[in-house]
């Protein structure tokens, strides 16, 4: 196992961020001020939320020209969902398995004046969405570090860092394309802290194709880590009602 991929290091990062003695109630990211509730993944201690913003082209406060609808899985503080609404998306749904993250996203939607366009929902991936809901873009900054299949979370906060046996990733790959409007796109933020070989194997088993549409190497403390934005599409010849891939974001 590569040092970057060691799930125990990621769990330690989770613990340190959760228990930091000077954890703030607000933080600045990409030129804006954001609320941060206890127990939520804290962008102030990890650069990956800002990296997501950069990969999606939302890091500039002047970003505009977006349209259509966006579903964000694992919204955390809501920075992606709120920035997407500010950039022009008319309907944004932000889901998270952590109820505190739902409240945090609501706070930031109100703070930035987009509460009419950002709807927060307590959901384990797509479970709480209405069956008929479809989106132009489905995005997930995943918990891409692979933990052993039998690992059991000790805190809700750890869910933002590791995925035991890639069970959540498998569900996402299977279900996400079925949530697209015609011409929409499923986008996944992944990094070399994760096991891309394992992800590609699962994608093949699920009849999905992965294509890196944007990537870069970013500093994370003393390390340089490769991050990528991956488009997930349905493999040719597969059926199941999924829509064709597009470029919704």
Tell how many strands the DSSP assignment holds: 11
Which sheet architecture does the biggest sheet show? 7 strands, mixed
Structural class: alpha/beta
State the strand order across the main sheet.
5-4-3-6-9-11-10
- The end-to-end span amounts to 34 Å
Helix content: 10-25%
* Unreliable stretches covering 5 or more consecutive residues: 240-248
Quick summary:
The protein is of the alpha/beta class.
Ordered list of secondary-structure elements with their pairings:
Layout: H1 7-18, E1 26-29, E2 32-35, H2 48-55, E3 69-73, H3 79-86, E4 91-96, H4 99-111, E5 118-122, E6 135-141, E7 145-147, E8 162-164, H5 167-175, E9 180-191, H6 196-205, E10 208-220, E11 223-234
Parallel strand pairs: 3-4, 3-6, 4-5, 6-9, 7-8
Antiparallel strand pairs: 1-2, 9-11, 10-11
Q: What would you say this structure looks like, in words?
A:
By secondary structure, the protein is an alpha/beta fold. Helices cover 24% and strands 30% of the residues. It contains six helices and eleven strands. Strands 5-4-3-6-9-11-10 form a seven-stranded mixed β-sheet, with helices on both faces. It is globular and about 45 Å long.
């Amino acid at each position: 196992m590569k040092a970057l991929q060691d799930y125990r290091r990621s769990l330690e990062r989770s613990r340190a961020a959760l228990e930091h003695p000077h954890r703030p109630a607000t933080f600045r990211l990409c030129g804006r001020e954001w609320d941060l509730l206890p127990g939520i993944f804290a962008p102030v201690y990890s650069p990956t939320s800002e990296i997501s913003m950069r990969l999606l082209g939302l890091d500039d406060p002047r970003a505009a020209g977006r349209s259509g609808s966006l579903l964000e899985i694992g919204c955390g503080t809501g920075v992606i969902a709120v920035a997407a609404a500010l950039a022009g998306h008319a309907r944004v749904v932000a889901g998270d398995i952590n109820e505190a993250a739902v409240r945090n996203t609501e706070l930031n939607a109100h703070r930035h004046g987009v509460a009419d366009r950002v709807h927060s929902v307590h959901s384990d991936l797509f479970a709480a969405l209405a069956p008929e809901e479809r989106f132009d873009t489905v995005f997930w900054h995943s918990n891409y570090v692979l933990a052993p299949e039998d690992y059991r979370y000790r805190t809700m906060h750890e869910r933002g860092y590791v995925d035991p046996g890639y069970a959540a990733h498998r569900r996402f790959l299977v279900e996400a394309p079925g949530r697209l409007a015609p011409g929409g796109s499923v986008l996944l933020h992944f990094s070399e802290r994760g096991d891309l070989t394992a992800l590609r194997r699962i994608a093949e088993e699920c009849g999905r194709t992965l294509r890196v549409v944007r990537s870069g190497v970013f500093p994370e403390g003393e390390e340089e880590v490769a991050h990528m934005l991956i488009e997930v599409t349905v493999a040719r010849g597969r059926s199941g009602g999924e829509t064709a891939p597009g470029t919704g974001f």
